[in-house]
Design goal:
The complex is a heterodimer of chains A (115) and B (114). Chain A is an all-beta fold and 115 residues long. Helix content of chain A is 0%, strand content 53%. In chain A, a hairpin with a 5-residue loop joins strand 4 and strand 5 (44-51). In chain B, the strands form two sheets. In chain B, strands 2, 4, 5, 9, 10 and 11 form a six-stranded mixed β-sheet that branches. The termini of chain B are far apart. The chains are: A mainly beta (115), B mainly beta (114).
């Protein structure tokens, strides 16, 4: 099956710093990638849709200046949490769609802890 | 928008028994229904999916059924094993502005007791 690689798997940072999370599609080109946030024991909440070569589309209530998304190539999307605060601590997951199909493949997730 | 409800939220079964998880959706335009398994600290893994033109699909111990009229679909796991213990999410997906918009259920924590 398709492989989506996400790094880092875990990051601890100080409040006020920025953190970058990478999502790569390893064996296919993904024109669209998705970023989710998941709180403990809850479902996945779509944050934004990352489109290669254009601006990301953010869901209602998600601050685009807070969560910067860059999709510079067909295999890489990055999510940068800027000026992180403790309330940004969460599990962040990316996904990519196999071209031409409905199937979504997920990365392994990134546990962000902001002290 | 789409609303996906999932039941039960937790499920405990004895090893070897069957487990059934049910989901309902609200948007009749949804046409693709995947199921994901998520282990602790990991991303969701696609385990089976079904399109709206099919009523049932089976893959070894896992099967999914879809009732379009009633707008509900179910995951069936037979001969459960301890390694099946995880959180399972259903989802409903439809075309939206050129890409598929996916709505996830609330998840079911399955515990298989050895």
């Amino acid at each position: 099956g398709a492989v989506v690689s996400q790094h880092p798997s875990r990051v601890i940072c100080k409040s006020g710093t920025s953190v970058k999370i990478e999502c790569r599609s390893l064996d296919f080109q993904a024109t669209t990638m998705f970023w989710y946030r998941q709180f403990p024991k809850q479902s996945l909440m779509l944050m934004a849709t990352s489109n290669e070569g254009s601006k990301a589309t953010y869901e209602q209530g998600v601050e685009k200046d807070k969560f910067l998304i860059n999709h510079a190539s067909l295999t890489l999307s990055t999510l940068t949490v800027t000026s992180a605060h403790p309330e940004d601590s969460s599990f962040y997951i990316c996904s990519a769609r196999w071209p031409g199909y409905e199937k979504l493949f997920f990365g392994s997730g990134t546990q962000l802890s902001v002290l | 928008g789409e609303n996906v409800e999932q039941h039960p939220s937790t499920l405990s079964v004895q090893e070897g028994d069957s487990a059934v998880i049910k989901c309902t959706y609200s948007d009749s335009a949804s046409n693709y229904f995947p199921w994901y398994k998520q282990e602790l600290g990991k991303g969701p893994q696609l385990i089976i999916d079904i399109r709206s033109n099919v009523g049932e699909k089976k893959d070894q111990r896992i099967a999914v059924t879809l009732n379009k009229t009633a707008k509900h679909f179910s995951l069936h796991i037979t001969e459960t094993q301890p390694e099946d213990s995880a959180v399972y999410f259903c989802a409903a997906s439809r075309d939206s502005g050129g890409y598929q918009k996916v709505t996830f259920g609330t998840g079911t924590k399955l515990q298989v007791i050895p």
